[in-house]
Amino acid sequence: GEDVEQSLFLSVREGDSSVINCTYTDSSSTYLYWYKQEPGAGLQLLTYIFSNMDMKQDQRLTVLLNKKDKHLSLRIADTQTGDSAIYFCAERDNTDKLIFGTGTRLQVFP
Amino acid sequence: NAGVMQNPRHLVRRRGQEARLRCSPMKGHSHVYWYRQLPEEGLKFMVYLQKENIIDESGMPKERFSAEFPKEGPSILRIQQVVRGDSAAYFCASSPSADNYGYTFGSGTRLTVV
């Protein structure tokens, strides 16, 4: 079945870059997404990438997609304390459902 | 243009009671998705609805859970005879069409069963 995996924790120093990784199994995925969830809040769509793209940049965010290895990453440049949250990777399957990873908890320390 | 509105934000029910969770999609959105997030876990798909139709309910438990999206009014996720294991955050998302790239999520309803 479809599966999306992420590492559970990432800790970085303020000002450094953060790289959050994700692997997925469904090769027919059309879109891949990154969502951010702050404590007690809903999910905020950060960015998405279409499956025929390799890279997408949006201000401090860079998404890299390696379709051959089914690997997706999110790089946050100049990480700030306000970036501390849980980051979810999700793939959109061929029935339009989103399949989420378990989330990576990013902690930014001064 | 208001976002996806879910209410209540927090809901406490005793075991055996019914829980009704409401979701009003964004204006112009006719597709609604319900997801459940158990503590310390990712979101799991439950059901996908369009107006008056259930498109995919492959993630819904077979018993006690039901969902509807009537012609008028919000989408409702109904859980009958709640048990402690139903305690979770329930999120609703909407999109204008199945081909749209992005879903907009609501802030969720946090259900606690005591």
Word description of this protein:
In chain A, 0% of the residues lie in helices and 57% in strands. Chain A has strands at residues 4-6, 9-13, 18-24, 31-37, 43-50, 55-58, 61-66, 71-76, 85-92, 98-100, 104-109. In chain A, the strands form two sheets. In chain A, strands 2, 4, 5, 9, 10 and 11 form a six-stranded mixed β-sheet that branches. In chain A, strands 1-3-8-7-6 form a five-stranded antiparallel β-sheet, with no helix packed on it. Chain B is mostly beta strands and 114 residues long. Chains A and B meet through strand 4, strand 5 and strand 10 of A and strand 5 and strand 10 of B.
Describe the secondary-structure layout:
The complex is a heterodimer of chains A (110) and B (114).
Chain A: E1 4-6, E2 9-13, E3 18-24, E4 31-37, E5 43-50, E6 55-58, E7 61-66, E8 71-76, E9 85-92, E10 98-100, E11 104-109
Parallel strand pairs in A: 2-11
Antiparallel strand pairs in A: 1-3, 3-8, 4-5, 4-9, 6-7, 7-8, 9-10, 9-11
Chain B: E1 5-7, E2 10-13, E3 19-24, E4 31-37, E5 43-50, E6 53-56, E7 65-68, E8 75-79, E9 88-95, E10 104-105, E11 109-113
Parallel strand pairs in B: 2-11
Antiparallel strand pairs in B: 1-3, 3-8, 4-5, 4-9, 5-6, 7-8, 9-10, 9-11
Tell me what portion of residues of chain A adopts beta-strand conformation: over 45%
Q: Return residue spans of chain B where pLDDT drops below 50 for at least 5 consecutive residues.
A: none
Described by strand count, sense and barrel closure, the largest sheet of chain B is: 7 strands, mixed
Q: If you compute it from the alpha carbons, what radius of gyration of chain A comes out, rounded to the nearest whole angstrom? A: 13 Å
User: Helix and strand string of chain A, N-terminal first?
Assistant: EEEEEEEEEEE
Q: Mind telling me the C-alpha Rg of chain B?
A: 13 Å
Instruction: Name the helicity range of chain B.
Output: under 10%
